[in-house]
## 1
Amino acid sequence: MELQEKTAIITGSAKGIGFEIARTFARQGACVVLVDRSGAEKAAESLKNQHYDAIPVSLDITDMKAVNNAVEAVANAKGHIDILVNNAGIIARGDILDLSREQWLQVMDVNVNGNFYFCKAVVPYMIRQHSGSIINITSIAGKMGDITAAPVYGTSKGAINTLTKSLARQLAEYGIRVNAVAPHAIETDMSADWTNDKRQEVIEAIPLKRMGKPEEVAEAALFLASERSSFITGEILNVNGGQLMD
Ligand SMILES: NC(=O)c1ccc[n+]([C@@H]2O[C@H](COP(=O)([O-])OP(=O)(O)OC[C@H]3O[C@@H](n4cnc5c(N)ncnc54)[C@H](O)[C@@H]3O)[C@@H](O)[C@H]2O)c1
């Protein structure tokens, strides 16, 4: 097992990609902390029923105080925090003409600020341990601009890409690696509102000619969390069926 004895915090893990990351890490022996604004208890319960080590934390990642308290409680309970996956995120649809200031601020608050709060909270523990792996779930939109979302979504993911590289540079001396996974067109609730025509259009543009599965994103996150990627930091790994090759 690749993550034996490790403690991993995964945000937005009540469902979708985050839940699959939690399940994949738990199967590899990690104690997984499932953070979500709703559904964390139920998700953790389903893992505990399969005899995995899972801790639910109900909070909104835009609440910095709640984030700090939760990270402190996990560190006190487990003694170490080895992995952080910043996965929680929201999307907005439409073009700039439809996009309100409130939507802009809300998407930036969750996708960028929430990510920053968690990084800031765990880094002191990782520095003390002189080890850690931070993985940010970004998007193809952060590299090539929005395809299916409002322009704030790609902007927020672009900010996460830059944060990933900045932290990778600043934290390398403490043995902390910081990487990202950039998915596209994964079967979750986030892509469930597409019309059939939109879906076909999206699939047509993907060389592998299909949607991706949450498990396929989770495998990429596992690789970046594990020692198999020990010389990789500042990387933004595509999981996109070949839509963007960079
Ligand atoms: N599904 C895709 O096609 C796709 C593609 C590219 C990137 N992504 C990214 O992958 C990540 C996961 O997406 P998903 O498709 O699983 O979405 P999802 O909507 O199925 O799940 C997102 C989870 O995050 C939680 N969440 C949202 N805001 C939160 C907040 N403020 N505080 C706490 N929890 C919060 C939700 O409750 C939910 O459980 C997101 O960052 C998303 O941008 C998804």
## 2
Amino acid sequence: MEKTMLAAVLHDFDDLRLDHVPLPQVRSHDDVIVRIKSCGFCATDYKAIKGIRRNVTFPAILGHEPSGIVAEVGPGVRHFQPGDHVIVQPSGYCGYCPHCRVGNTHYCQHAFTTGGDGPEDVWPGAFAEYMLTKECCLFHKPAGVSFHAAAITEPLSGAWKGLIQYSQMQPGDDVVIIGVGGIGLLCMLVAKAAGAGRLIAVDSSEYALDNARALGATGTVNPARQDAKEAVYALIPDGPDLVVEAAGPIAAVKLMTDLRRRGTKWNVFGITTHETFELDGGLTHFLEGRMDASFGTTPLAMAKAIRLMETGLVDTEKIISHRIPLEKIHEAVEIMASPERNKIVVNVLDAT
Ligand SMILES: [Zn+2]
Ligand SMILES: [Zn+2]
């Protein structure tokens, strides 16, 4: 009899079912099967379930922020063996195309993703007991980092890549984070760990702002209750060195540009929809407006995120608000819609 596993299978928009599906099989030399312990629930997953993003091929197994234990390896796998505790990068890459050769593996011309969004080649993800990936996507999980905390590696790596690698945040910089839900809080933790000066959280949810204060924001601004620009400048009269848009709505991107003073750096981090905003060319020139954007992750960013957790500079456990067993994934979908949450992790097989 064919062996099966439990998986949350998306059959259509708003049609997520717990099914028993065939176990993934090793097919080529560098394949790895990972027994999933925990997987972060990302807004991307929620958007796929609700049909907010339409680029989904059914049936689909979502979940692209996993940690787990290596169950089986292909004959060419050299650096991992069954029993190893691992963190899985969702984006696979070839290593040889012009982008991979310079380290931009997230631009890879032959990319695949396990459960994520971006590449056209989408493999089943980690809202399941097991998943198939490749050796290039694996990282050893430090012993002192729990499987749940490790499931936050991919979004944490994105925050490191955006703030540190691309926007080159410096110790002492005054930083504004617009949107302090899951990913924005991670940006805040990275900014804190990197020695931010004043660190201002902007969000229309008081729940999110309470969390931001508890995690080290030196000031908070609620644009639903006050003029956001005035409030930010009341806290930072000289204006921010860096503004990170980690919210998503176009209004947040517009606020990001409004908060500038001369030399302010922007990072367009949260928006994924195709909406426009205007920049005055001459003004941007004379202000020396500097804009970065950041999506996805790279092996470098994953390694840095793991180091931040291993050394205790960032404790991702602090942003986990819900741990939901795979069998109750529909509860996780409901909680995703609520403003009273931070990061949700879906655990499989009693992760600790
Ligand atoms: Zn994600
Ligand atoms: Zn490539």
